[in-house]
Amino acid sequence: MQGTHFGLTGLGVMGQNLARNVARHGFPIVVHNRTRAKTDEFLKEYGVEGHITGASDIASFVGALQPPRAILIMVKAGPPIDDVIGQLTPHLDRGDVLIDGGNSFHMDTQRRLQALAADGILYLGTGISGGEEGALHGPSIMPGGSRAAYEIVAPIFTRIAAQVDGTPCCTYIGDGGAGHYVKMVHNGIEYADMQLIAEAYDLLKNVVGLSNDDLARTFQEWNQGDLDSFLIQITAQIFRTKDPDTGDDLVDRILDKAEQKGTGKWTSQSALDLGVPVTAITAAVFARFLSALKDQRMRAARLLPGPSGRFQGEKGAFVNAIREALYASKVVAYAQGFEQMLAGGQEHGWDLHPGEIASIWRGGCIIRARFLNRIREAFDDEPQLPNLLLAPYVREVMGSTQEGWRRVVGEATRLGLPAPALSSALAYYDGYRRARLPANLIQAQRDLFGAHTFERLDKPGVFHFPWMPAEA
Fold first, then answer.
1. pTM above 0.85, yes or no
2. Does 190 qualify as catalytic in the annotation?
3. Is 471 a catalytic residue?
4. Catalytic entry in 38, 183, 265, 330
5. Going by fewer Cβ within 10 Å, which terminus of the chain is more open, N or C?
């Protein structure tokens, strides 16, 4: 590689690890941070890992790069991205590339791409998943925006990405904000997956009575089968981890308030706009909102009545039922996410390829899982598949797991344990498989009070009916 044309600004943990990843793969890189001290500290700590050069200010940072320059921006999403772009653009030339590697809103990405194109600057909105470790050892990378820009950085991105079966977990997603949209849905699925695992944990601990050691063994065993995934793997590790100060299990010391950065909410909001029922994802978002009401929940726990029953069944069989419920619900969450991506692609004119997206999610990213191989195969077999639930393998999963799934949701309801993601996933499945839903009554009500009309089963057309008898 001649000269240095790749730079990175924003040396937070993700930015640092991505810069190290680039350097370790033999690509020269120039790094910059708003505070010079952080740049110096980074160079002192990691400068020996490759050809890494530091820059003290924006002008010298851009000046150290040879055209066509490619600059990865790793700062907080929102106005900080616009601020950095505003600082960089006066120093850039036509054909240079800016890359937003944060969790930006896809419409912001579209706006920035169009504004920069007027000056001949290429732009990529790039989703990067894998957390700190993935950034260093190989993330899943979802670039969207200028195809010409992607061709410039593809040799770097495809090398630093996770590799599965010799294939890089990176592919060009589509134009506009496609890359950030797909990353947003990835995070929505992640919300659902984490909530489902939390509900399974609640049932295993408070219904079956497993200890944290038992939970660690159970999740480790589950990770050897169909549930094999990064999130199941780290869950087992969490239950083994002790608080170094007290020696107690650390998970039991953590306040039960789940925070969020907004991508799950964006997923639900987009789904509402598109008319796509991502019920498991949205239930997970609302569950985090409910968890944040800690003070109110403490008061409600003292005042509100609930059931007093106890679990009476065989515990081993119920543990297996929880595994089945978790897997079936996980499949539904992925099905909903892929349905939303396809709808979003149609809405925005993006030519999304769900099989390729499933393929690049197999390594590096937070939701990497064995099941993604099945998703890729499903779309390879039927590229126009409207919903994963219709794929042969998934139909088999639903048939083999739903008895345990229904038992778990029913038992959680009977005992008063909230299972919003498990139950909403089951309700979605039951609604999707029904040839006739009670929505006919809703349409009748709408027509009665608002003359909103309705269609009929027995003849074509749009109708309105005078439901109320005429007054005498």
1. yes
2. yes
3. no
4. 183
5. C
